[in-house]
Amino acid sequence: MHGWLSSDYSTRAADTFSPYEHGEVFVLDDGGEVDLDLGNYERFLDIRLTKDNNLTTGKIYQSVITKERRGDYLGKTVQVVPHITDAIQEWVMQQAKVSVDDDGVEPQVCVIELGGTVGDIESMPFIEAFRQFQFKVKRENFLFSLVSLVPQPSTTGEQKTKPTHNSVRELCGLGLSPDLIVCRCSTPLEAAVKEKISMFCHVEPEQVICIHDVSSVYKVPLLMEDQGMVDFFADG
């Protein structure tokens, strides 16, 4: 299994990030200074990642501008679509084939985290790139999971689903329809809330996964397994 992070940060790497905003950087075996998320991937998946597993907007634009200056585009007008979106897809295809284990075997599954929030202007090139990517690799080889917050105000205790509805509606308008909706909440999702998300977000109830607050982060994979997430991947 392969895991990596694509980020809408315009910086090229995380070495200049302020720890007050992002926490400490994580240093990979090849010296790459990256977001802490990459450290979580290594720990949970027992893999070894490189700096190329951390894709930022800055890296993509630098790559495209370098190609343009070199004349690779033969004088064509360089645009976000198709040049930036193509560069994102090419990076994904290339890195997905790189082994992350000592055995040197090509990974069978590649997990990509697209950071940011639905609607952020910075992430639009990535959204469009993955909209195209799902057809390039065929829909049966592409699974899209949306992580959405289900707030629960302390004054009422009611779990609110509207933010999730709005996120899914906007994503569908951009050409991406979630296969799984992973709900972050403070307490387990009520059955009626799960049904409501299912009805308004065009997924089956079993495709709504609840990740509520737990005492240890290592219990999160067990929550996913208990709700059939592994079976969903296997059946897909």
From TrEMBL:
In Pfam terms, one family for this protein is CTP_synth_N
- Keyword annotations of the record: ATP-binding, Glutamine amidotransferase, Ligase, Nucleotide-binding, Pyrimidine biosynthesis
Q: Top-down, what is the taxonomic lineage of the species of origin?
A: Eukaryota, Metazoa, Chordata, Craniata, Vertebrata
Origin species = Ameiurus melas
- Give an example GO molecular function: ATP binding
Keyword Nucleotide-binding present in the record's keywords: the answer is yes
Q: Which major enzyme category is it?
A: ligase
Q: Which GO terms describe its biological process?
A: CTP biosynthetic process; pyrimidine nucleobase biosynthetic process
* Domain of life, per lineage: Eukaryota
Q: What is this protein called?
A: CTP synthase (glutamine hydrolyzing)
Q: Where is the CTP synthase N-terminal domain?
A: 12-232
Q: Which reaction does it catalyse?
A: UTP + L-glutamine + ATP + H2O = CTP + L-glutamate + ADP + phosphate + 2 H(+)
Q: In which pathway does it act?
A: Pyrimidine metabolism; CTP biosynthesis via de novo pathway; CTP from UDP: step 2/2
Instruction: State which Enzyme Commission number(s) the record gives.
Output: 6.3.4.2
Listed under GO cellular component are: cytoophidium; cytoplasm
Sorted alphabetically, which InterPro entries does this protein's record hold? CTP_synthase, CTP_synthase_N, P-loop_NTPase
Q: Which family does it belong to?
A: Belongs to the CTP synthase family.
